[in-house]
C-alpha cells in the first residue's frame, strides 16, 4: 500500500467518523482490514484504496469504518464518573417533576458496559421506586457493535473487569460460560445507531451525558464541534462526563469543569444564559 492508498482509506474514515488515522497507524489497517478484503474479494489493501478512490461505495465505506473503530470498554471504567453519578442520582430523582423522565445518554457506548453500568446505578438509586421514569439512551456509530451490546451478554473476562461481584450477582444471570444482564436492567437501555458528527438535535435534552474515550480519536476542530453539539443536548444543570485523557479546555467555553470532580463538566452559566 502506498501513501496515496493509505490516505484514501484514512480519508474515508475521517470524513465518515471523525477518527484521525496518522501514518504510524498503518499497522492497524494491516491487522483490521483483512476480513474486509476477503468479504469484498479484494486482493490487497492497495486494491481497497484504489476501489475507494474510483467511486463512492456506501457498504464498503461503512465496513471499513466499522473495522477501524476501537471498541475497548469495561464496566465502571475509570470509576470517578460513576461515583459522581451515584452521588448525583438521588438529587436528580427527587428533583423530577411528575411525568418528566430522567434522561441519561451514553454517546459512544461500544459493547454496552457503560450504559449497563449506568443502569445498575440507576436501579440501585431507585430502589424499587416506580414514580420516576428513567430513560437511558446508548448510541454508537457502529451497527455491528450495537447488535452485540443489545444482547447484554458478556464473557467471564469482561465481567471480571471493573464489575463488583455484588453487582454481578445482583444484575446478571449465568448463561453457559457467559453472563446475561437481567431483563429489567436490559429494558432500561435503548440502543440506537448515531454518528456524533451528525445533527443530534432530535435526541432532545439530557440530565447527564457520558461521552468517553471517543474524542481522543478526533482532531481539535472535530472535538470542538462535537463538544458544542453535546453542550446543546445538556440541560442547564446537567453533567457531561469525558474520558480520563479528554478535556474541554482549549476547545470550547460552552462547558466548564465541575470543581473537584475529574472528568465532569457542566454548561457554562454565561453561555446557558446567552
Ligand atoms: C473506545 S470506545 C469507548 C466506549 C465507552 N464510551 C468507554 O469509555 O468505555 C469508542 C467508541 O466510539 C465509537 N465511535 C467512534 N466514532 C464515532 C462517531 N463519530 N460517532 C459515534 N460513535 C463513534 C466507536 O464505534 C467505539 O464503540
Automatic annotation (TrEMBL):
Entries under SMART domains matching the protein: MeTrc
Catalyses which reaction(s): L-glutamyl-[protein] + S-adenosyl-L-methionine = [protein]-L-glutamate 5-O-methyl ester + S-adenosyl-L-homocysteine
SUPFAM superfamilies xrefs: Chemotaxis receptor methyltransferase CheR, N-terminal domain (SSF47757), S-adenosyl-L-methionine-dependent methyltransferases (SSF53335)
InterPro entries: Bact_Chemotaxis_MeTrfase (IPR050903), CheR_C (IPR022642), CheR_MeTrfase (IPR000780), CheR_N (IPR022641), CheR_N_sf (IPR036804), SAM-dependent_MTases_sf (IPR029063)
This enzyme's EC code(s): 2.1.1.80
Cleaved signal peptide residues: none
Keywords noted in UniProt: Methyltransferase, S-adenosyl-L-methionine, Transferase
Enzyme class: transferase
Domain named CheR-type methyltransferase: residues: 1-274
Family matches, as PANTHER family: CHEMOTAXIS PROTEIN METHYLTRANSFERASE, CHEMOTAXIS PROTEIN METHYLTRANSFERASE 1
Name of the featured protein: protein-glutamate O-methyltransferase
